[in-house]
């Protein structure tokens, strides 16, 4: 049996490598797929050569370098041979399901995809109104045509259940490699160090985090990632006289080292899905602070395995002050690690997904 894997619209191995996400995809998802299927076709949006992949995995490039939106529609027709050879298809996020849905219509191929978060709402937050409308437009036909939709949070599941019913939905959260992401010896700094890793965008609500840090004495912040707001955050930190270090995106296997440089991991987002980086921080036994929003409040139990705050500056500051207590940080970190070990082992969760794919392929 063979599997076809569609990356999100516009994504390529080069793009994922630049974001530090390629090794995570290859070392976990793709290797697991390769063990279960005879062949795995991976469709990229760039004309690129193969990276280091299992022998039975084939990277299918965008040889004509077509525009990503055009290619998402034409992909099944330009790669008829490979699509015909697939027994089941897997789309990465809702945009990865666009070519899968077209393959379903014209080639009768069953497919699944993961619905990670409220795409339209996130686009609206980032003031991408046209994109938000497009997400709303494609959601119904794609979910209707799909065989199953993987959801990673209960709130997203409840949201989709009202529209499409429970039979379409399979609850499989993101997983963590708890061996790679474990507690390491901390590099101590006299200042209370706050860490954020992720996209430097409006959605992450980092401006309010910086305003909150203004009144926290002997503190510093480290932001790791790329995004359109990078320079704005640097400028704001300078205006507020905050010690802020911004680093480029790093590969996932280097993230545990970054955690050793901080006392607290903060994710003050306006909306999330099932954030891998939060799970990884908790697996490394970090004290975490997250906003009480979709995608985060399902993971953090306030006062047990982390702290929850509202998205405003005052609430973030209030909870940061609580986390100045090192004993509280130690307690929350230990509980966070236990929570991840019990619920988010990556091998168990990927096995559930592979079993779902194999069932559809038969």
UniProtKB/TrEMBL annotation:
This is Glycosyltransferase. Pfam families: Glycos_transf_1. Keywords: Transferase. Residues 181-338 form the Glycosyl transferase family domain. Coiled coil: none annotated. Gene3D superfamilies: Glycogen Phosphorylase B. The keyword Magnesium does not apply. CDD domains: GT4_PimA-like. InterPro entries: Glyco_trans_1, Glycosyltransferase_grp1. The keyword Metal-binding does not apply. SUPFAM superfamilies: UDP-Glycosyltransferase/glycogen phosphorylase (SSF53756). It comes from Berkelbacteria bacterium GW2011_GWA1_36_9. GO terms for molecular function: glycosyltransferase activity.
């Amino acid at each position: 049996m063979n599997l076809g894997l569609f990356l999100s619209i516009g994504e390529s191995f080069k793009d994922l490598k630049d974001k530090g996400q390629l090794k995570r995809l290859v070392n976990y998802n793709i290797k697991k797929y390769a063990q279960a299927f005879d062949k795995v076709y991976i469709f990229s949006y760039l004309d690129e050569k193969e990276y280091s992949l299992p022998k039975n995995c084939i990277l299918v490039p965008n040889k004509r370098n077509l525009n990503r939106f055009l290619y998402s529609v034409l992909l099944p027709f330009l790669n008829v041979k490979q699509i015909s050879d697939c027994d089941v298809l897997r789309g990465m996020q809702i945009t990865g399901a666009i070519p899968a849905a077209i393959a379903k219509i014209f080639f009768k191929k069953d497919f699944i995809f993961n619905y990670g978060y409220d795409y339209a709402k996130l686009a609206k937050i980032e003031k991408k109104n046209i994109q938000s409308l497009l997400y709303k437009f494609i959601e119904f036909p794609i979910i209707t045509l799909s065989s199953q939709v993987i959801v990673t949070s209960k709130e997203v599941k409840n949201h989709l259940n009202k529209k499409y019913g429970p039979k379409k939905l399979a609850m499989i959260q993101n997983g963590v490699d708890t061996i790679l992401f474990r507690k390491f010896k901390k590099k101590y700094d006299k200042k209370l160090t706050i860490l954020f890793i992720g996209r430097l965008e409006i959605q992450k609500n980092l401006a309010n985090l910086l305003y909150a840090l203004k009144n926290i004495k002997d503190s510093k912040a480290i932001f790791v990632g790329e995004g359109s707001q990078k320079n704005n955050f640097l400028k704001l930190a300078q205006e507020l006289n905050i010690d802020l270090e911004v680093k480029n995106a790093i590969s996932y296997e280097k993230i545990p080292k970054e955690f050793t440089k901080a006392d607290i991991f903060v994710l003050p987002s306006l909306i999330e899905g099932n954030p891998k980086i939060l799970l990884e921080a908790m697996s490394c036994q970090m004290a975490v602070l997250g906003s009480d929003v979709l995608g985060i409040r399902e993971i953090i139990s306030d006062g047990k395995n982390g702290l929850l705050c509202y998205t405003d500056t005052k609430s973030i500051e209030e909870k940061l002050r609580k986390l100045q207590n090192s004993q509280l940080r130690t307690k929350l970190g230990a509980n966070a690690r236990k929570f991840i070990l019990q619920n988010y082992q990556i091998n168990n969760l990927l096995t559930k997904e592979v079993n779902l794919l194999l069932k559809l392929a038969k």
